[in-house]
Structures are given as structure tokens and as C-alpha cells.
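Handout, section B. The chain below has 711 residues.
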Amino acid sequence: MSPQILDLRIELADSAEDIERGFHCACETFGRQTQDGIWIAMNPGWDTPEGYARGVKNMVDRWRGVTMDREGNLTTAFIKATVPDHQSDGGRVIVGMAIWVQASVVEGCGQPPVEDFSQAMDLDLLYPSDKAQQRYLCQLDYSLHKRRIEVVKEKANTSSPAVMVLDFCVVDPAFQRKGIASKLVQWGLEEAKRRGGLEAITEASAMGRHVYQRLGFQQEGPEIEYIVDDEFKQRERPSNIFMRTAGVAFAAINKCKFPADHIIERDVAIVGGGASGAHAAVLLKEDFGKSIVVVEKQNRLGGHVATYADGSGKTFEYGVQSYLEYGDALAFFERFNVTTGVPTRGALTSAYADFSTGLNVSTFINPANDERVAALNRFLEAAELYEDMILPGYWNFPEPDAIPKDLLLPFGEFAKKYELDAAMPQMFQVPGPGVVDWTDAPTLHVMQVFGAPMARALVGAAPTFGPLSRNNTELYGKIGASLGDDVLYSSTVAKAERDDTGVKLVAKSKSGEEFLIIAKRLLIAFEPTIEAMESFDLDKGELGVFEKFDYSTVYAGIVSHPSLQINVSLVNTVPEAAPDDYYHFPKAPILARFDYMGAESDLFRVLIVGDKTLDEEGARQLVRDSLANLIEGGALPDGDVDDLEFVAFVDHGAMHLRASLDDLKEGFIQEQYALQGHRSTWYTGAAWSVQFTTILWAFNDILLPKVVEEL
């Protein structure tokens, strides 16, 4: 989370102009940022002048129709968040809005909940003559608010026959992660107390629920299920859960409810079977002699490893490509009789084009090799000064007031300071898109994706290797065979209880089968985004760390199309970089390049990187749009975009977790590492180290003795 805004005001909206600005924030957030399928369906044409005006009018009409309860309280409160408007002397601008409703079915105690959406809204105005869409809206609204209606009715016969409902909460994307949503929610919670200690309830999206949880809301029941007609079931709808501040039926995990053959007792439970989790499982079981169980959401181990085998038996790697020789990595391959060697790949001709316009950038001049190597060596010399602070983990990272200035510099400034111009194109193309804002990012973030080990490999000072089988899944297949029944595949943790004496986990498979895991230690081996950690019953300190993480989403795939050129790597290059200004790069979301994969195939690897809002369909569409642009712009020969084939595609999920520069300066690394061992829980993976397999294994070599200490 970025620093909170000092001059933030939370107060009642008092004009139609305020309401219009609140609707504008909703358009930016629900329309453009998250593309919320429910909000968009409720506000058709929101991105057109007519639809925008209609949405504003509906919201203003609701604001003007607000009533009072018998105590003189507003039954619906529109709350605005404002900050100084730097474009207007003394003015303020609305950057967020919440709608709080005191709901009750008892007359005079609040606003009755809407049970029939068609009675509350003129559906013919929203969708003239479209009865199917009108029916869909009614089904959506009832599904989303079904539990709300039930709770309000349940309260009718109690001494406090009303609840405070957080009906709407939005913050302009430009002002998110600054504590504004928390303040809007706190207003309602404090008002609920003032009104006699009313319970607060809400339907929470994936974006908002961690804020609500931190302020005292708890999830009740599973995700909200949308009951819609078959003709609507394929439509996209966002994840929502029902949350409340009291009366939640969260019974403790009861061992007696599980059959004996569905109870697993172990020394260590590992959640996540990627590079870190699989390696840790082997070492804990074989080297430390501990009993383990791994909960893995995929049907295999290996995480970002992705191998495609064609009909002839040839294999193509489109996830992990090769490995840096680091620590005892080679010995781990030898343990499983996986023969390794130096990876070989046919030489490709690089071509340069702007994927957003499809125009060739043929005037771009790649740096001369001797200049590139010299610049990489300068980077290496600088990076080695800080290597022990970062690798293989941050145990030695300095306190905030002692962080080297180099690590906090925007990387563009760092690069100019050390004359890295000739290295910049390669540094960006290898892992750079993962940082998203590359030249503006703190140098520490760049060193997390391109550090001293990578530089050593590229200048020939350290080798890389891979399986001679050209199949990166070989290792993980053998690990899976070794671990046997100690892995629960296609499973996730649905619920957790953790304290200093141990943990209980309910692991749920895709088929719905549940297992109770009782363990003395828990090892989290996946990227701990706030969304991924929701089922782990986070405390305030844990929430305070995980909510500060920003991250990229990464997708990799193999495509085929007749217009793509054999033996060519077509690199996404902005025209500003030509001929030799190496500080200009494409902006996210980005398709980095179309890379020919060799082996006399017609296959090309694609790597797509965006922010946390980029979903799989958005990534696929970016590939389609880029190809269409390149054909239309002339960078590729004529062809039909519909001939594009996605041969393989994988969602790598959240990657490159990072805290803001301000959070780093305030001691984020120390706060993060203080969680190791807290509530019997330990953490491994890229969020605690870097995104390279063999360095993560070296991290485990240091971490695991701590995990099993006194076990």
C-alpha cells in the first residue's frame, strides 16, 4: 500500500455533481480496470455519452430519493472521499465513494431490501425490448443479494432489527492503495456503532474483500453462486462473497466430521508444488526425515515449467527455458538421475516492429556485441555490491535508513549512472517485461528479475544448463513419483486454523472431496497475494504485509500462423527506440515477441505480461490484436488472423511481487521476514527471493533447517 493521503476528507455527498463524480470513479474502476461483468450489465453503454448520462441520472435519482428512519438517520448515505485538486486553487476532487444503507423490513427502521429488481428499476429503459437481458439482470441481482435479503429478514425479530449494508464502494484507480477504501468503510462501521451497534454486511469482490476483512468483516459461506438460465451461464461474472461483522457461523474445524481415511497428520504441510514447494518436499522428507504432505492446485508438480509435446515426440519448452548454475542445483538433478547439459538453440534473425501499430522499426540498431558485454559487466560489477543483501534471500537486507541509494533509484537513472545503455535491450527482453514499468521501477525491483547471476550467465562467467531430454517436466515427474501419495493434486486449501502449536487445513479437490490436514508446521510455497491468502485466516500483521504487494500477471504460450516467419524472432519495439535510444520500451500489457521455436516446426513462443487485472482472455486477445496489427501494418505478410492457432497456453499467475518504494523505505522487507515462523507458518518462493528456480532452491537450503528446528 502506498502512503495514505494526508489531506483526505470523508464526508456526505451533498450535490448532484458529487454523485456524477462517484459514477465516474465507478466507470474507471468497474468498467475499465476490472471490467466487472455485473456492473457493466447493470450499466449498459456506460462508456458512451448516452449510457453514461443514464447511469448518472439513476444514481442521482437514488440520492435524491433518500429517506430517514424514525430516529432521523439517513437510510441511505452517499459518502465521498476528497483530496485537494491541484488544478484548482483551494478546490477538492472526489476520488472515491461509498453507499451505506440501513436496511430493515421493519417499518421506520430502515430501507427494505430489493427483492424484485424489475420493481426497483425501469428495465425497459436499460434494455428496450430485450426481455432476455432484463431477465438476466433480475437473476443476477437476486443471486448477488439473496443472502443479504435473508439476513435483513432474520434481524426483524431481534432487538436490533436493522443492519448497515455496504452497498457500493469504489476508489478511482489513480488513487488506489492509499487507504481511501478503508476510510470509506470505517465511516460506515462507526456509523453502525453510533446507531446502536448495528451489524454490517456486504457482498465483496476479489478487489475489496481483503480491505473489509482487515476492518472486521468475515466471510460467511462459499462464494456467491449465480443462479441464471442456461443461456446465460457462459457469461463472465466476477467472484463475490458475502461478508458480515458479527454472527458468522465459523465453527472451528471439527476433526470428528472427517472419516479416518480423510485425516492426514504430518510434520510439515506444504501448499504449492512448484519449484520451491517440490524441492522443499523432497529435502524435508528425504534429508530431514520429516513426514510431509503437499497440496498442489494443478494436476502435476513443477509450477512454471510448461512443456508441449507434438505428435512426433518432439518437446517444446514455453515456460521455464533453462537453469542458472547456482548452489547445489546440479546435485538435485543428479539425485533423480536427470542428465543435464548446456542448452542449445538455433540462431534466430531478430526483426523489430511496433506491435501496437504493426509497423516495422527497421531503423533500430541492436547494440554491438562488445558494447553489450561491456555494459553487462558494468552492471555485474555494480550488482555484486548488493548481491549478499538480496540473494538467495533478504535476511541481510539493511534497515530502512541504511538501504543503499542505488537500490532505490529509478532503474533508468541507475542505468545512466553506470552507462548500461548497450545492455538495456537484452536486459528488458530477457526478464524485464515482468517489472512492467522497467525504467521507472526501483533498481531493487529490476535486480529481483535480472540480478548478478543472470548477468554472469550472459557474459559467459557462469553456465546455464537444462535436461538433455529437452523436457523440463522430466525432473518434476520423477519428484512426483518419489513423493507418491504425499501429494494431493488438483486441490486447494479451503479453510485454515493456525497458531503457535500447529495448523489445521481443509484441503478440497476439484471434485469436492475434502481432507483434514493436521501439521506441526505449514510451508507456504506459492505467491502470497492477498487474494491467494484469503482462506488462511490472516491476522492484522499478516494482512498488513500481504496487502502491500503489487504484482504482474504472466502468460506463456505456443502459437502458429502462416504469416509468422521461420527462424525469426520478431521483437516488440517502440519507434522511439530507433535507431539507438535504448531507454524506450513498450508499455504493459505487453506481448514481448514472437519467438520461433525451431526443430523444423511452425511454432512460436509468446510471453505476455500485464498488471494484476490482465486475465487469460485478455492475454490471448493481445496476441490476436498484435498479430492483426503486424499483418495490417506490413511487418508480417498478408494473412487471415482467424488462422491463428493457440497450440498451448498457460497462466503463470501472479509473479514479481513487489512493494512500493515508500513501503521499502518504511521497512517492508523487515516486516515481511518477521512473518517467518509466525503462527507455525513459514514461506518460500519468489516473493521471498527471486524468480529463478536454482536460487529458490538455495533459499530453501537456508530456510528448511529453521522450519524443522525443535520439530
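Note. The chain has three domains: 9-245, 255-304+466-549+661-708, 347-464+550-659. Compare this with the example in section A.
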